[in-house]
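Thread: quick sanity check before group meeting

JM: Hey all, I'm pulling together slides for Thursday and realized we never actually wrote out the predicted structure for the chain we discussed last week. Dropping the sequence here so it's in one place. If anyone has concerns about the input, flag it before I start.
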Amino acid sequence: MIPPEAKKVKMVFAGDGSVAVGDKLFKLSPGAQIRDVDNRLQLQGAVRGEYRVRAIVDGNGQVSRVWILTPDEIAAPEPQQ
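JM (edit): ok, ran it. Output follows.
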């Protein structure tokens, strides 16, 4: 279950521990969790390229949790908070 506070964005993974969202660059937190479309955990350095995701940024301004979305999840509206 993806928490409702996770925002839907287009994210580019550089493979070096950083990600870009629009024109902003973020670092992945040291313990960041990245889940693929099958909800499996992926290593930070193994994910490269551009994806539609839902993500949470922690209090330090680092991306701490990422869910790579399926086509159905991309098409679905964001949950109401």
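AS: nice. The mean pLDDT is 94. The CA atoms of residues 23 and 71 lie 24 Å apart.
JM: adding both to the slides.
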